[in-house]
Amino acid sequence: MERLLQVENLVTQYKTAEGMFSAVKGISFTVEKGETVCIVGESGSGKSATALSIMGLLPANGKITEGSIRLKDDELVGKTEEQLQQIRGNEISMIFQEPMTALNPVFTIGFQIREPLMIHLNMSKKEATLVSIELLKKVGIPNPKEKIKQFPHELSGGMRQRVMIAIALACEPSLLIADEPTTALDVTIQSQILDLIDDLKEQMGMGVVFVTHDMGVVAEIADRVMVMYAGEVVEMGDVHRIFNHPQHSYTKGLLAAVPNVDDDSKNWLQGVNIHGKSSASS
Ligand SMILES: Nc1ncnc2c1ncn2[C@@H]1O[C@H](COP(=O)(O)OP(=O)(O)OP(=O)(O)O)[C@@H](O)[C@H]1O
C-alpha cells in the first residue's frame, strides 16, 4: 500500500471564553491510497475538529497548535489560505452531512458542478458541461442532462447528496473527507450512498476519511477504524479486529450501542455484513 496521509501529534485548539480548549490532543494516524479510515466517537470527541484540521477549514477561533499533516509528503500545516484552497480544489475534497446547506439554492446543479471544473481544471463551459453530465451519471443520477438544469430544492435528499459527491469528485481528489454524509438520509438511501463512495474509492484509488458516530455505517464502509474519545485516539485497528476483539472499554461501549446486536462480544455483528462478508467467517 502507498501512504497518502500522515497525521502526527496533531493538536487542535479552540479559543473560548474560558481560554484555549484542546479539541484534538496529539493524535497520530495514517491513510493509505484506496483505504477508508473511519473516525468514530461520541459527540464532542474531536472527530470534526480532526477532519476540519486536515481540510484547513477550522473556524476563526480554531487553530492547529502542534503537529504535522502530510499529504503525499507535502506538509499542510503552516500553508497559507491560498495554498490550502489550491489543495482543496485538487487533492482533497469534503462532503458534509447536510447537502442543502452546502449547495447554493440560487444556482442550478449544472452551474455548481461546472464551477470547480472551470476554475481548477481550466475547462471551457462546454467541456465542463459534458464532464458534469458524466459525473452525474457516475454517481447514479438518472436523466443527468435534465438534472443539470434543476435547482437543489427540486431534488430529493439522497439525490442532493449524490450531487455533492459529484462535485467533490469533479477534480479527482486523492483524498475524500466525509463528515457524517449519510446521517440525514433514510437507511436505504444511506446504504446506496455508502456503496457509491466505496465503489468510487475502488475505481479512483482514493483514500477516504469517514467521520461517523454510527457503528453500523462503520461496518459497511471501513477498512480501518480510529476510535476517538475526548480528543484522543483510544484505539485504532482493522475493522474486523475492532468489531470482534475491541480492546478499549470505550470501544466496547460504542459497539454495545449498535441496535440488534447480541451483548456477547463474540457475537458482535452477527447478521451484519462487513463488506458483504459475514464477520464470523473472517
Ligand atoms: N467553534 C468552536 N469553538 C469552541 N469549541 C468548539 C468549536 N467547535 C467544536 N468545539 C468543541 O471541540 C470539541 C470537539 O468538537 P468536534 O466538533 O470535533 O466533535 P465531534 O466528535 O465531531 O462531535 P459531533 O459528532 O457532535 O460532530 C467539543 O468539545 C466541542 O464543543
From TrEMBL:
<dbReference type="GO" id="GO:0015833">
    <property type="term" value="P:peptide transport"/>
</dbReference>
<dbReference type="Pfam" id="PF00005">
    <property type="entry name" value="ABC_tran"/>
</dbReference>
<keyword id="KW-0813">Transport</keyword>
<dbReference type="GO" id="GO:0005524">
    <property type="term" value="F:ATP binding"/>
</dbReference>
<dbReference type="InterPro" id="IPR027417">
    <property type="entry name" value="P-loop_NTPase"/>
</dbReference>
<keyword id="KW-0472">Membrane</keyword>
<dbReference type="InterPro" id="IPR003593">
    <property type="entry name" value="AAA+_ATPase"/>
</dbReference>
<dbReference type="Pfam" id="PF08352">
    <property type="entry name" value="oligo_HPY"/>
</dbReference>
<dbReference type="InterPro" id="IPR013563">
    <property type="entry name" value="Oligopep_ABC_C"/>
</dbReference>
<dbReference type="InterPro" id="IPR017871">
    <property type="entry name" value="ABC_transporter-like_CS"/>
</dbReference>
<dbReference type="InterPro" id="IPR003439">
    <property type="entry name" value="ABC_transporter-like_ATP-bd"/>
</dbReference>
<keyword id="KW-0997">Cell inner membrane</keyword>
<keyword id="KW-1278">Translocase</keyword>
<dbReference type="GO" id="GO:0005886">
    <property type="term" value="C:plasma membrane"/>
</dbReference>
<dbReference type="GO" id="GO:0016887">
    <property type="term" value="F:ATP hydrolysis activity"/>
</dbReference>
<keyword id="KW-0067">ATP-binding</keyword>
<keyword id="KW-1003">Cell membrane</keyword>
<protein>
    <submittedName>
        <fullName>ABC transporter ATP-binding protein</fullName>
    </submittedName>
</protein>
<keyword id="KW-0547">Nucleotide-binding</keyword>
<dbReference type="InterPro" id="IPR050388">
    <property type="entry name" value="ABC_Ni/Peptide_Import"/>
</dbReference>
<feature type="domain" description="ABC transporter">
    <location>
        <begin position="5"/>
        <end position="255"/>
    </location>
</feature>
<comment type="similarity">
    <text>Belongs to the ABC transporter superfamily.</text>
</comment>
